[in-house]
């Protein structure tokens, strides 16, 4: 007995948007390729060089998108790791003048206390 998946990417709003975006980008790229390959301005450039140039541009575009995605992924992992670290205050820190509740305040600033240990 097999069960069907309850949701697919095409059924969600974001999935539909992403699919439409990718399809639109593909159509735009094909139109651009057709314009460049049949361009009257680039008639003097042989067709194989025009195709090579288009392939190079597509490769650079894919590498740019991949590098941004990698940068974002590394940033998310770093953010996740920093969020998982505990926040600890060092007990060795010396108190400031106004931190009278610190246990070491009386020893660091004895001039602020009287002979009975109360603040002056």
UniProtKB/TrEMBL annotation:
Lineage: Bacteria, Pseudomonadati, Pseudomonadota, Gammaproteobacteria, Pseudomonadales
Region annotated Disordered, chain positions: 92-120
TM regions (residue ranges): 59-83
UniProt keywords, alphabetically: Membrane, Transmembrane, Transmembrane helix
Top-rank lineage group of the source organism: Bacteria
Presence of keyword Membrane: yes
Stated name of the protein: DUF3742 family protein
């Amino acid at each position: 007995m097999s069960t069907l998946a309850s949701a697919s990417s095409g059924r969600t709003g974001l999935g539909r948007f992403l699919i439409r975006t990718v399809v639109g980008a593909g159509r735009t790229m094909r139109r651009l390729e057709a314009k460049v390959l049949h361009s009257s301005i680039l008639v003097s450039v042989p067709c194989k060089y025009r195709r090579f140039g288009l392939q190079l541009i597509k490769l650079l575009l894919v590498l740019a998108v991949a590098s941004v995605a990698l940068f974002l992924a590394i940033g998310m992992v770093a953010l996740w790791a920093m969020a998982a670290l505990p926040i600890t205050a060092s007990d060795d820190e010396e108190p400031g003048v106004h931190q009278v509740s610190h246990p070491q305040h009386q020893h660091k600033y004895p001039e602020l206390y009287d002979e009975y240990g109360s603040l002056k």
